[in-house]
From TrEMBL:
This is Flavin reductase family protein. The lineage of its organism: Bacteria, Bacillati, Bacillota, Bacilli, Bacillales. Residues 10-150 form the Flavin reductase like domain. Keywords: Oxidoreductase. Pfam families: Flavin_Reduct.
Length: 159
């Protein structure tokens, strides 16, 4: 199969949208990503996947920490800003959790120490040990078929 077919197939899996952030000295770095997953409850571990050509790889390796902010459906512009697709006006103001920058009003922000890093193909997987979390109510920003999606409200009924 060719790369386009593979990408199109992977795009059929709906994901949430996150912004990965880190800080090296006083310099803040951020990027939009949808490759995130929870790995373990004990210890509490999560994983992000970043293209090996991204500048963020060296930033996370240097800082030894990263934060993941889960975006709400009202934060498409934030996602596009950190993906380099749209520039927000003015300077972006971060919130902080354990001295790491996180996205204000995100549904959740997770702060991690790098637990392990693995180069796998053309990406690096950073397994992070969760140090702290902030959670807010709201609807997630989703990504499907190369486009931002609308959150589907599903109500589960206990029988």
């Amino acid at each position: 199969m060719d790369n386009k077919t593979f990408r199109n197939a992977m795009g059929k899996f709906t994901t949430g949208v996150t912004v990965i952030t880190t800080k090296v000295n006083e310099d803040i770095h951020g990027m939009t990503a949808n490759a995130f997953m929870s790995v373990s409850l004990n210890p509490k571990l999560v994983t992000i996947s970043i293209d090996n050509q991204a500048k963020m790889i060296d930033k996370i390796k240097t800082s030894g920490k990263y934060a993941v902010s889960f975006l709400s459906d009202e934060q498409v512009d934030v996602s596009m800003h950190f993906a380099g697709q749209k520039k927000l006006e003015g300077r972006f103001e971060f919130d902080y959790l354990l001295d790491l920058p996180v996205i204000p009003n995100a549904l959740a922000s997770v702060v991690c120490n790098v637990y392990e890093a693995h180069v796998v193909g053309d990406h690096t997987l950073f397994v992070g040990e969760v140090l702290d979390i902030v959670v807010r109510d709201g609807n997630p920003l989703t990504f499907f078929g190369g486009k931002y999606g609308q959150n589907l409200q599903i109500e589960f009924v206990n029988n």
